[in-house]
Design a protein that fits this description.
The complex is a heterodimer. By secondary structure, chain A is mainly alpha-helical. Chain A is 50% helix and 11% strand. In chain A, the strands form two sheets. In chain A, strands 1-2 form a two-stranded antiparallel ribbon. Chain A has a two-stranded antiparallel sheet with strand order 3-4. Chain A is globular. Chain A starts with a helix and ends in a 10-residue tail after the last strand. Chain B folds into two domains: 293 residues, P-loop containing nucleotide triphosphate hydrolases (Rossmann fold); 108 residues, no CATH class. Chain B contains 19 helices and 13 strands. A ten-stranded mixed β-sheet of chain B has the order 6-4-7-3-8-9-2-10-11-12, sandwiched between helices. In chain B, a hairpin with a 2-residue loop joins strand 11 and strand 12. In chain B, helix 5 runs antiparallel to helix 7 and helix 7 packs across helix 19.
Chain lengths: 154, 450
Amino acid sequence: MKHVLIEIIRRYYSADLVTKSTQVITVDNKPFIRTSYERSAVLWQCRNQAQEFEDDLAKEIIDGVRARAADDVYGMVEGWLKATGKWEEATKDDIRTDIENQPCDVKMNWCVRVLAKFDILDMREVIPTEEVSDEDGSIIGMRQLKNDEGGSSG
Amino acid sequence: MVSKVVKCFAKSQVRSDVLHMRIMGWSGKGKDVFGEQYITQKVGKFKVIDFHSVERNEGFFYSIPNTNPSMLRRLQFFANGRLKPKSFKNDIVMICGRKILKQDRLPKNVSIRSLDKDLFVDNDMIPFLTNTHAGEGLLQMIFFFNEVRGEKPMNIDDLQNYLLKIINDQLPDMETTAFKSSKGNVVPPILRNIISLKSSGIFSEKFPKISLDELLKDSQSITTISYSLLDTSLERAVAQSLLLNMVVKQRDEIKKKAKLIPLLIYYREFQVAYNKHDESFYRNCSMLRQKFWWILTEGRDNKITLIANYQTPKQIPDNVANQFQKHFSLAVPKKEAESFQSFAPIPPLTINKLSLCGRGQGLFFASGTYKYPVEVMPTLHMKKEAGFNVMEHLQKVFGSYDIEKEYGVVLDDQLFRSVDGIFTLSSTSPNGTQKKSEKRNDKEESDDGW
């Protein structure tokens, strides 16, 4: 399950869906992003992974998910949280109480945050990030490495 | 459940030989969060002084771990458990001022200190005591006579006595003649400013004097200096100028630089000293600007580093900005951000985006390279929120002490006046100086400046 989640979230972020969320269009009043081809490809790869890891729960979730990238991840996370009895704990004290109705980028960030909360994944595994520091190693900040940002000159 | 997979993540180090850093950004974009999280990482490597905690009492919370849920989520997001909320050793020094009269108790980690009058001598006093050429000329002449007589430099008391002698014709003939024309219109405003400063409490004898040894004694702590007990921007300018002068003089005088403890000064609202819109206040800040310039140009050899924050790039002159080698900019106006392109090859697209950055997101550039978009890490210690009662909170956490008992004073209106001999002065002054002084104080209490 964990491997599948990491893979799908990593692909989600590396495909830069989050940064393009300003171009989100809605279908049936729900956020809709990327082409169905890309979503299918991602899902297919994830399903293969699930199979490889013999993760029946993940396979089942993937097979049953609706064709929306963020919803896919959300569906998987929700399914996993409920299946493992962690749903209550995950949603307690969270600023987002209506996550199901949020746009896809908010929904995806919520999923990542919840998974990090349970110490399942490292943010930087799924969101490529570099730590910027000065000469003595003091942290200046974290730079998200996104496809459409020039970023560094050195 | 399988355990967490920990992978190495990318690191990028930007080195710079000159360590001074400027932090820019519109209000509310996260300058102080960045500044505070940055300087706390320097504890142990430098003696860190949060030199200007401004009127909001920023910088009073280093000793309390961060509990803000939103900041903790952000910390978790970026550091992924590697960094945890923590506290730092923090000494808070409040420079004595009339607002102490409104307090009964203070948190135990806060002390009150006044300044030594002998830090404020001769020419150093000029920009604070007069705004006219005539006044400046008079003071220059007085200090010249004093030097010719071979006497020690004049402090504010010596000058006050001398000016009273001018008014009362008690000087030798030559000096009486020299100052005759100033007696009626130049001397009284200077005396008024002297009285105002002396009755502000800055130089009060009732409170312990601040010393550099005390400020620098614990290299593992952050020392916060607050001027929020002072009433006016003039008083704050005097206090800051004298303190910074004290630090710079010590650095300059010690020849064996190897013995110096590396010092890091964090200064908020740096632009105030360069604001030319208020001509008179700009003049009051001349010593402060001189000391900043010394730190920026000589600091490297004297182990002193300045971290300054201000709002937009054009608020300080280019020659000052050029002395900084490390720059962090949160959202600033697009037009002004174009000046960053002279420090690193930053593409116009990035410059355009900078003005639209959200809170805590910005551009870092140093040594000819740049990094964008950089997300600011939250502080590990508590950060003050708007409308928060700082003193009350600190008293709850650290306990409090009774100011009158601790310092052996009575907190009434006579505290600074009687001790400093203001009434004696006013009774000898033929020009109703006392009355004017009070009027001036009334006016300045509404001063919302610095």
